[in-house]
Design a protein that fits this description.
- The complex is a heterodimer.
- Chain A is mainly alpha-helical.
- Chain A has helices at about 30-40, 45-65, 75, 85-100, 105-125, 135-155, 165-170, 180-190, 195-200, 220-240, 245-250, 265-280, 285-305, 315-335, 340-360, 365-375, 400-415, 420-425, 435-440, 445-455, 495-515; strands spanning about 430, 460, 465-470, 475-480, 480-485.
- In chain A, the strands form 2 sheets. Chain A has a 3-stranded antiparallel beta sheet with strand order 1-5-4.
- In chain A, helix 4 (about 85-100) packs antiparallel against helix 5 (about 105-125) and helix 12 packs parallel to helix 14 (about 315-335).
- The longest helix of chain A is centred in the N-terminal third of the chain and has 23 residues, at about 135-155.
- Chain A is globular and about 85 Å long.
- Chain B is mainly α.
- Helices cover about 60% and strands about 5% of the residues of chain B.
- Chain B is built from 13 helices and 3 strands; from the N terminus they run αααααααααβααββαα.
- Chain B starts with 6 loop residues before the first helix and ends with a helix.
- The chains are: A mainly alpha, B mainly alpha.
- The interface between A and B is large, with 76 and 67 residues.
- Strand 4 of chain A pairs parallel with strand 1 (about 140-145) of chain B.
Chain lengths: ~525, ~220
């Protein structure tokens, strides 16, 4: 079911190939669209901006620009007073549409980078006085990171590059440079002072979360909210680079145990939790990964019907499937089903039940399954460095992915003996090392190492160096006896009784209302 | 237009990156001596041409010393496969594998053969011994002396001294075992005495109780 790790982004039509495309032709509907959007932005009418951005832009794209780009910015500028900032926003959408429906040329990729530079400079220098919908601001950060990833993948396919393309790559070596990308995101975080704002928000001195990031006092939300979403952007970029620790660190200011501005936009919510869970999985903090995947999958299950018409619906479904695969991996390495809610569990059984059984067996076939699920569900890792243009040109677009996969499978290998010992520890409360060694067909020193590996692998070390237990079975060794302490599945009696009390009260109130004739 | 980046932001960004990687290899989280290494490391991560094998090797040794923290595997995620094929990195990867799977005997044998890589960082042995003690303490309530000796690779008089120190400072207790053996009682924690685990299961948060306030009233 899982498709192999794919590197192709979107459809492969070369941009502008449709003979009919005239960049200077502006249909009336587009004239009306840009002039209205421009006016609503000037009036700070967030509701109308959102409608035009979410609905009208899609409708017009479907009707007029299915396989051609939108009219050039120069052609629409006269309808919006040649407004500099509006033109930057328009081009941002122009490129986003191009990336989604066509295939950008190298020149266009570089131009899009330039446009982001100009747009973010304007925002960073504080001359922006607009109020834009969160959805739009999230899309900007999301697309910025996506185009960076896409550029790295594109550049890494060296074999098919023409001389002209290589000359361009050399000339514009700053375009989509990894430092540039990280610095913009970091600058947005710092300039917006979003970290301080969130701290004050917690103490009730700010209303950032309560107002969903909007400014109701005539100010602008753009820098603040871009700074906020940039933290999620940084998490994603660092995951793409394989730097999971730094990624999680960037997200720290956002409290993901609570709803927040990141949950206002479904795309941001999913991106945050997907990368957060993935980073935790790679850091062996399985319980944390399972908890967050579970919550997110449940949320998607309950709300996906509301997104059916959204442009992101397919993306939502894809990430949903990927998170089920990651959940299957996490639970195979750390079998703690009690952390998973019933609905999610039954979905998981349906999709991966049979595979998960086979993954417990730790043989060649199970290796292949870990490989398959990981490859299907992992982020699109990138190599950020520029290629060597001298040597025979080689493709290196799969290098980063292969490395992460290899290291992950190595981790799985180190844990392969744990599944066997688990089976025995589940059925014994006391057993001598000698006896268990015989059952497992290993010698005693080896069994000791297996038991210690079990302890090491199920106890992660947090960023504060505190030991966090992910263990599904508690045991200890006393000289040469293993004692298993049954971890009673914690029945939540308290919660159960509270629910029943409320229910009973309800029934009694209902009964009181019944009038006997 | 706009291809240059804002100067002060660029500096801010890089300073914070170096800081982040400092954390990543946090053997001495706030020891400024390792900063130059780490700054190099950040650059090398993105620019393989500038990579110095020597420095990377030293960082990996430090990362091994940070066990049980996952620093070593975090570093490997960032070092290209081609580089990992170099002889001394292969050795370090094998050493890490032994530590990850608690095969201390093999680890110390292999380490003895590779002193030239490991001795560049002072305190290497002590750090690994501390990791071994950590894993043993998660696993054992009482451990035979010989098993402990093997895991930390100390014997004879040095072992006497080590045990004396642990008894005086870390709450270890020596006990007579079966036969001639000696048993060491390791300090109690929720990991080797699972009954100490706080059962958070039946704590009912106040918000839940508030649901029945109207009924109680």
């Amino acid at each position: 079911m899982a498709a192999p790790y794919d590197y192709e982004d979107g459809p492969q039509h070369p941009a502008g190939s449709a003979a009919a495309y005239d960049p200077n032709y502006v249909p009336d509907s587009v004239k009306s669209f840009v002039s209205h959007l421009y006016r609503y932005i000037r009036d700070k009418n967030v509701y109308e901006i959102h409608q035009m951005y979410e609905t009208s832009f899609q409708t017009l794209s479907d009707r007029h620009f299915k396989d051609t780009p939108w009219p050039s910015v120069d052609a629409v500028a006269p309808y919006v007073d040649n407004d500099h900032v509006f033109c930057l926003l328009y081009r941002e959408m122009w490129f986003r549409h191009l990336y989604a429906r066509l295939s950008p040329t190298l020149r266009q990729r570089i131009d899009s980078w330039d446009n982001y530079c100009s747009l973010f400079q304007v925002v960073l220098h504080g001359v922006v006085n607009m109020q834009l919908p969160n959805q739009w601001l999230w899309d900007m950060v999301d697309e910025f990171v996506y185009q960076f990833q896409s550029f790295c993948q594109y550049r890494a396919k060296m074999k098919t590059k023409t001389e002209q393309e290589i000359a361009l790559l050399r000339q514009f070596d700053q375009a989509w440079n990894v430092y540039g990308v990280l610095n913009f995101l970091q600058a947005l975080v710092e300039k917006s002072t979003i970290i301080q704002i969130l701290e004050q928000d917690k103490e009730g001195l700010e209303q950032f979360t309560a107002t969903d990031g909007y400014d109701y006092n005539g100010g602008s939300n753009v820098l603040k909210v871009l700074g906020y979403f940039s933290m999620v952007g940084l998490l994603r970029v660092h995951c793409l680079l394989g730097d999971y620790h730094t990624g999680l660190k960037c997200l720290l200011p956002i409290d993901i145990s609570q709803p927040g501005v990141y949950t206002c936009v479904i795309g941001s919510h999913i991106t945050t939790i997907y990368h957060y869970g993935f980073a935790n999985l790679m850091l062996r903090r399985y319980v944390e990964a399972i908890r967050e995947f579970n919550k997110m999958l449940l949320y998607i299950y309950k709300t996906k019907q509301y997104h059916q018409k959204s442009a992101q619906y397919e993306q939502i479904l894809k990430k949903n499937e990927q998170m089920y695969a990651l959940l299957a991996i996490s639970l195979s390495l750390c079998p703690q089903l009690s952390l998973v809610e019933e609905t999610v569990n039954s979905q998981l059984r349906e999709k991966y039940g049979e595979k998960m059984l086979r993954m417990q067996r730790y043989d060649d076939e199970s290796d292949a399954l870990y490989d398959e699920l990981f490859s299907y569900a992992c982020p699109k890792f990138i190599t950020p460095s520029a290629p060597s243009y001298e040597e025979p040109l080689v493709n290196y677009n799969q290098e980063a992915y292969r490395l992460q996969l290899k290291l992950f499978l190595h981790e799985v290998k180190q844990q392969q003996l744990l599944s066997g010992v688990r089976t025995f520890l589940k059925v014994y409360s006391t057993i001598s090392l000698g006896k268990l060694a015989t059952y497992m067909e290993v010698d005693e020193p080896t069994l000791r190492t297996i038991l210690m590996t079990f302890k090491h692998k199920t106890h992660a070390v947090g960023s504060d160096r505190k030991v966090i237990s992910n263990a599904d079975i508690d045991f200890y060794i006393d000289d040469d006896m293993i004692q298993v302490v049954e971890s009673k599945t914690a029945k939540r009696y308290g919660d159960y009784f509270l629910r029943q009390i409320v229910k009973l009260e309800g029934v009694m109130t209902d009964l009181d209302r019944v009038k006997l004739e | 237009m706009g291809r240059e980046q804002p100067q002060q932001e660029q500096e801010g960004g890089q300073a914070s990156m170096a800081y982040a990687v400092e954390q990543l290899v946090a053997v001495n989280p706030y020891n400024p001596d390792i900063l130059p290494d780490l700054e190099d490391y950040v650059n090398q991560q993105f620019e393989p041409d500038r990579m110095s094998t020597q420095i990377v090797a030293r960082i990996l040794v430090k990362a091994l010393m940070a066990m049980p923290a996952p620093d070593f595997s975090l570093c490997l995620f960032l070092i290209s496969e081609r580089v990992q094929m170099e002889e001394q990195f292969k050795t370090l990867i094998v050493l890490s594998h032994y530590l990850e799977t608690a095969r201390f005997r093999q680890f110390w044998d292999e380490a003895a053969k590779n002193r030239h890589i490991l001795d560049v960082v002072p305190g290497f042995e002590q750090a690994i011994q501390a990791y071994a003690v950590h894993v043993l303490s998660l696993t054992y309530q009482k451990i035979p002396r010989s098993i402990l000796a093997e895991a930390i690779n100390i014997e004879g008089l040095s072992l006497e001294k080590f045990l004396e120190h642990q008894v005086a400072n870390c709450g270890w207790i020596l006990e007579k075992g079966q036969g001639n053996g000696q048993l060491i009682v390791l300090p109690r924690s929720e990991f080797n005495h699972p009954e100490l685990k706080k059962s958070s299961a039946d704590n009912v948060p106040l918000e839940h109780i508030t649901r029945i306030f109207p009924i109680l009233g």
